[in-house]
Amino acid sequence: MTAFxxxxxxxxxxxxxxxxxxxxxxGVLLAGALxxxxxxxxxxxxxxxxxxxxxxxAAALGHGVTMPLGGAAQVVxxxxxxxxxxxxxxxxxxxxxxxxxxxxxxxLAEALLSAVAVALALRLLNIGWQTAVAxxxxxxxxxxxxxxxxxxxxxAEGQVTQRVNVLTALNTLYAVIALVLMRAxxxxxxxxxxxxxxxxxxISLLTxxxxxxxxxxxxxxxxxxLDLRNESAVLLLFGLVAFAIVAARALGVxxxxxxxxxxxxxxxxxxxxxxxxxxxxxxxxVLVLMLFVIVGSAWTPQTLLAGGFAALAxxxxxxxxxxxxxxxxxxxxxxxxxxxLALSITMTPLSATALxxxxxxxxxxxxxxxxxxxxxxTSIAVxxxxxxxxxxxxxxxxxxxxxxxxxxxxNKEGR
Length: 415
Description:
Order of helices and strands: HHHHHHHHHHHHHHHHH
Helix content: over 70%
Number of helices: 17
CATH topology: Na+/H+ antiporter like fold
C-alpha cells in the first residue's frame, strides 16, 4: 500500500467518523432547537423552557453530562457564560449604586442573607460545615443566563429588568470571590501556610484583573474603529471575548470573574454606552441554547435521590432569604413593593453559574463531591424548568412585558 493510499484512508475515516465532541455539539444543538421551537409554537412559555426540557429528557435517558464538566460541555459552558457575564457587566452602571445606596444595600443583603440561611438550614440537617458553607456559596448567585434570556425573548424593559442585571452581576462577583477565599482558607488549613495561601490568592486575583483589563482595552480599541452593531464587528468582538476566556482557562483563573470584571471596567471607565446585538447575535445565541440543554441534563435519578430533602431545604432557605431582603429594602432602593416582589422572584432560580462553580470546586476539592454534588445538582434540576417560568411571571407582575407578550397568541384568522 502506498503512502498516498494510507493518507486517503485516514482522511476518509475522519470524514465519516466525526469525533464524539462534534456529535455531542450537533446533538445538543438539534435537540434544544427543536424543543425550544415546539414550546414557543404550542405555549406562551419562553423557548428557554424547551431548551431545558431537552436536557432533562437526555438526563432521564442516561445521556446527561457528568461532573466535573469536561470536553465540549466545558467549552460551551465557559464560552456561553463568559459572553453573558461580559454583556451583563457592560450594562451595569456602578454610579447608579452611588446615587441609590438602597440598591447597593439590597445587593449585599440578599447575597449574604441567602448564604447564611442556606448554611444554617443545612447544618440543622446535620450536614458538615465544609459542605454547608460550599453549598451556601454556590447557591448565592442568581442566574444571569435565565433572567437575561427570558427578558430578551419577551422584550422586557423597565426598572425590574435593569435591577436584575445589577444584582445578578454583583452576587456573581461576591460568590466567585467567596469561593476563591474559601479554597485559600482550606488550603491553609490542610497543612499549607496562611501567608502562602494568601499569596496564591493574590496572584490569582491580580492575574484575573490583568486579563480582564486587557480584554476591556482590546474591545475599547476595536470600538474606536468599528461600529459594534455591524455583523463583522460583532464577530470580532465575539472572538476577543472567546480568546480571553480560553486564556483564563489556560492560566487557571476564573472564567466567570474575568469576563464580568472586563464588562464592568469597560462600562464604568467612560460615559459611552456599549451597544451590540444581545448575546452577540446568532453565534452567542447558539451557545446560550446549548448551555441550557447542558445544564438541564446535569443530573441523574441517583443524584436526585441522594440530594433529596437537603436540596429542598436549601431552596426554601435561599428563596425566603432573598425575598425577605429584597422586599424589605424595596422602599430604601426606591422601588415599590410590587417591584420588590417581582425582583425577588426573578432572583430565585439556580442555574448555569452554580453548575460551573461546582465544576471548578470539584477539580480543586474532589473530596467534597459526595456531599456537595447531590445537593446542588438536585437544586438545579428542581429549578431548571420552573426558573424561566417564574421569571416570566415576575416580569408580567412588574408590568414590564410588551402588551403583545402578555396576551395569548392569535391564530392566523386573528381569533
